[in-house]
Amino acid sequence: MEKITDIIEAIANEKNLNLESVKEKVITALINTAKRIYGQEYDFFVEPKSLNLYQKISVVADNDERIKQNPESFIALSKAKKEVADIELGDELTYECFLENLGRTAVNALHKELEYHIQKLLEQTIFEKYKNKIGQMVFGTVIRVDNEENTYIEIDELRAFLPRKNRIKGEKFKVGDVIKAVIRSVYMDKGIKIELSRTSPKFLECLLESEVPEIKDKLVSVVKSARIPGERAKIVLMANADNIDPVGATVGVKGVRINAVSKELHNENIDCIEYSSEPEILVARALTPAIIHSVKIEGKKALVSLSSDQKSKAIGKSGINIRLVTMLSSYEIELKELDSTKAQSSEEAFKNLQDLFKNV
């Protein structure tokens, strides 16, 4: 039989697996094969360096009941002394086993054991690789779309799936399309299953990182993002270096960067908001395009005062704007219209906000 160390190196190189991990699986395969050939009652071990297989027999007293119960694993001291004169109770006799000497049956059994354990190792390695990529963006080619409009995508060595619920409303894919998505989850179910998503806020963040060098280089951070896929999104941005405008850098000249991201998201509108550690200011900024008079935080609620002509803007079409602000800020937003006698003009309200932001 081919030298076992050569087999290990060949498997590791061919499958791109860790050499020591392959070695562990080979040891397991050798022991399992020996037990299958000789019997489960035998006690075997493999010497890690040489990878030679040995049977182990423990030396016990002559009247030990285990000798009768399991003669393959225990030997009487008097009998053991005939083989090794200075052996003592508790010592062990070892006998090297050569599976190849047992013929084709043993070799085939070892081959099947190796194949099984290496396949399991390969699956586990790939599983760990993609589990560590959850939340990262991947590219793939559409290979099938089923009757329920679930999309199956080939990425590297695996087939992933994009459920209909994780697809932006209105999107249609066909075989051959190359699409981007983030890995949403990885699990084992009769093999490795990789679920992709184009609707999660993480997908928006990954796209921004790919389009905006300042985000990729950590000069600008995406603090938080919220989406109603295909409709609207809001992202909170923070500069990590002086003289950087996080919103301007993300939007790009004439909106070229943010428009590229929006196009990938089926023309989703994206509001860029500069971060503030003051929750009142952050809520006011997030409610854009509405102009806010004031914000007061009470527990988990944000009381927002605004003039009546700004209320519809704060709420947004079908309530989208206020829903996104709630997701982004984690505050329940309560809008309070100012009395007409107290209401300010939009210009005055905007000026008040400007003065407030200058003091941040």
From TrEMBL:
Monomer. Binds directly to the core enzyme of the DNA-dependent RNA polymerase and to nascent RNA. This is Transcription termination/antitermination protein NusA. Residues 135-199 form the S1 motif domain. Coiled coil: none annotated. Its main location: cytoplasm. GO terms for molecular function: DNA-binding transcription factor activity; RNA binding. GO terms for cellular component: cytosol. The gene is nusA. Pfam families: KH_NusA_1st, KH_NusA_C, NusA_N. InterPro entries: KH_dom-like_a/b, KH_NusA_2nd, KH_sf_prok-type, NA-bd_OB-fold, NusA_N_sf, S1_domain, TF_NusA, TF_NusA_bacterial.
